[in-house]
Amino acid sequence: MLPTRAQGTAVQPGEGFPTVTEAEDGSPQLTPLEADPPASLRVQPLLRGTGRQVVATDTVTVQLSGWAWVGGEQFDTTWTSGLPLSFSLQDVPAWQEGLVDQPVGSRVMLVVPPSYALGVTQSEELKGQTVVFVVDILNARTPGETS
């Protein structure tokens, strides 16, 4: 049985990242920055888990929320359904780059500039925008593994 949210040690975020708080149900809430978005992918662990480290070929199971950098409008979340999402990191290059070496159980913020394809979350309304994801890594497995 998988956990429903990240459970790790809090990490002090660096400067230049939006503020993330947690609602009663564990879902992340974002307060956007009034600043220009970064030009490159930025990764900020918020909770450091204790599980095995994610590798580039893993299939991950995550809870996620996504917001537009400008205005902070949420465009995606798994928290409302309560059902985590599983997919191959190879399908989403920004996540593959940002989540590799993060331990399972972590909550990680990814600030993704428009130069990255968003894979399964690609949408016309987000074209040309920087987006912010907060990802709880609930499980990671190499294809062919059973757990």
Summed up, what is this model?
The chain is mainly beta and 147 residues long. The chain has one helix at 93-99; strands at residues 9-10, 19-22, 28-31, 42-48, 59-68, 74-77, 85-88, 107-112, 131-141. The mean pLDDT is 91.
Beta-strand proportion: 35-45%
**Estimated radius of gyration:** 14 Å
Low-pLDDT parts are none
Q: Give average pLDDT, whole number.
A: 91
What kind of oligomer do you see? single chain
Put simply, the count of helices is 1
**Helix/strand order, N-terminal first:** EEEEEEEHEE
| Separation of the first and last Cα atoms | 10 Å
Note the overall shape: globular
What would you call the structural class?
A: mainly beta
Give me the count of strands: 9
Task: Assign a percent range to the helix content.
Answer: under 10%
* Major sheet details: 7 strands, antiparallel
